[in-house]
Amino acid sequence: MDNHTAKAESPPSERLLWAPWRLEYIRGIKDSDCFICDKRDDRNDDDRNLVLARGQESFLLLNAFPYNSGHVLVAPYRHVADLADLSENELNEIMQLILRIKKIMVRMMRPDGFNFGFNLGAAAGAGVKNHVHGHLVPRWIGDTNFMPVIGDTRVVPEALTDTARRLREAWEKEG
Q1: Residue of higher predicted confidence among 44 and 28
Q2: How many secondary structure helices (H) and strands (E) does the chain include?
Q3: Domain 17-25+32-174 classified CATH 3.40.1280.10?
Q4: Domain ranges of the chain
Q5: Which of the 8 DSSP states describes residue 122?
Q6: Each residue of 72-123: pLDDT tens digit?
Q7: pTM recorded for the entire structure
Q8: CA distances in angstroms from 33 to 30, 70, 127, 132, 148, listed in the order given
Q9: Could you list the active site residues?
């Protein structure tokens, strides 16, 4: 018996993590080349666009295709592809916005932790590779389950518009 048959290995399909609901976003019809710029420019309907807050240089919005409830995006207003292209003011404001919304989420949503990061370039998973943006994702112990993997169904306990409204109201109260 050679080494290859001596081990009982899982077929490749059993070692992969599938996120089939992302196909809705990937294959979906895009209004333009950059949904971030679209939401940046449509200042008349922040509710519909899930925009939480606007700064001088950047803004916060809920991800319309979240990995978890409260999945927030932060982006500069300028359409630039990389963090290295941002000014010091833009970088500082992005971090201040993230820290402030994180503080609000801790109080309101009581997550056990957060994922925060930037996907830079298509190979890193950037869905919009030419407009740099970060993700803040609240996490709870046990928040991963079989539903997305087996049932092609995400479990998000609150409507995105309701989450956006509650976070926006809390943001405004903190002033």
Answers
A1: 44
A2: 6, 5
A3: no
A4: 17-25+32-174
A5: G
A6: 999 999 999 999 999 999 999 999 999 999 999 999 999 999 999 998 888 8
A7: 0.74
A8: 7, 25, 11, 14, 28
A9: 133
